[in-house]
Amino acid sequence: MVRLRAFWATLVGRAREVAGANLTPRDIGWAVAMGVFIGVLPLYGLHLPICIVLARQLRLNQVLTYAAALVAVLGLPLLMLTFIPAYSFIFTGSYYNNYSPSPILQAILVYAFYLLICLNPLATAFVTETILIDQQSAFFTTFPLSNGSSVPLLSPWMPYTLFCLFFSLIMILLSIQLVRRKETT
Q1: pLDDT higher for 37 or 19?
Q2: CA 63 to the chain's CA centroid
Q3: Which DSSP category does 88 fall into?
Q4: Is the pLDDT of residue 19 over 70?
Q5: Phi and psi (nearest 5°) for 163?
Q6: C-alpha dist (Å) from residue 184 to 44, 170, 177
Q7: C-alpha span between 65 and 53 (Å, rounded)
Q8: Does residue 165 have a pLDDT over 70?
Q9: What residues are paired with 152 via a beta bridge?
Q10: For residue 144, what are the β-bridge partners?
Q11: What is d(CA 105, CA 68) in angstroms, rounded to the nearest whole number?
Q12: Which residues lie across from 65 on neighbouring strands?
């Protein structure tokens, strides 16, 4: 019981420290950006140590960085769950018997929903596994529309990999620019 109280006191003290820290909007923005970047990396179980090391090296708030990483990993699937009823309504017209959405609207929503899937590592892994099992395809899939046509899609791991490579390139270029500024001063 004493250990639990000590742990709770430490946790409350740390939360007060984070809340009372003199963080500028720039510090908050960099900590959140770094946390989201770390959160979308497919390095499950390593997010906390990566957040701690990078936040210390970049002098960012460690708790805020890890909180943003958790939101990126766990929050996006929860956000996608809120879209499922709207998604099913658009494609089935279950609330209106005579409702038939246009194929263009359906295709736009398929690509938008697919983009959400491709930005989250857990959703990407789950959907890629489902495509591999159901359709025996590692690279391409199709999504049927209500008018009988289908929308071609890449397997989710491909856009996710491109997104991570693009974001890594941006971070590398920004870090090179930051190092050059420090060298000139």
Answers
A1: 37
A2: 18
A3: H
A4: no
A5: -60, -45
A6: 38, 21, 11
A7: 11
A8: yes
A9: 142
A10: 150
A11: 32
A12: none
Residue with tokens 């025996």: 136
Tokens of 49: 């140590």
Q: Which residues pair with 142 in a beta bridge?
A: 152
131's CB contacts (< 8 A; 6+ apart) are 137, 141, 155, 156
Strands 150-154 and 140-144: antiparallel
Domain boundaries, the chain: 2-73, 100-161
**Can you list the pairs that 18-21 forms with residues at least 24 positions away whose Cβ atoms lie under 8 Å?**
18/61, 18/63, 18/64, 21/61
Average pLDDT over residues 86-107: 64
Distance CA(143)–CA(150), nearest Å, equals 5
Q: Which token pair is 172?
A: 């590398």
CB atoms within 10 A of CB 83: 14
Whether residue 109 is predicted with pLDDT greater than 70 in this model: the reply is yes
CB atoms within 10 A of CB 52: 14
Q: List the structure tokens of 44.
A: 């499950």
How far is CA 89 from each of CA 4, 52, 94, 109, rounded to the nearest angstrom? 48, 43, 6, 11
Bridge partners of 141, per DSSP, are 153
- In 3-state terms, what secondary structure has residue 43? coil
Residue whose tokens read 């596994």: 129
Number of other CB atoms surrounding residue 65 within 10 Å: 28
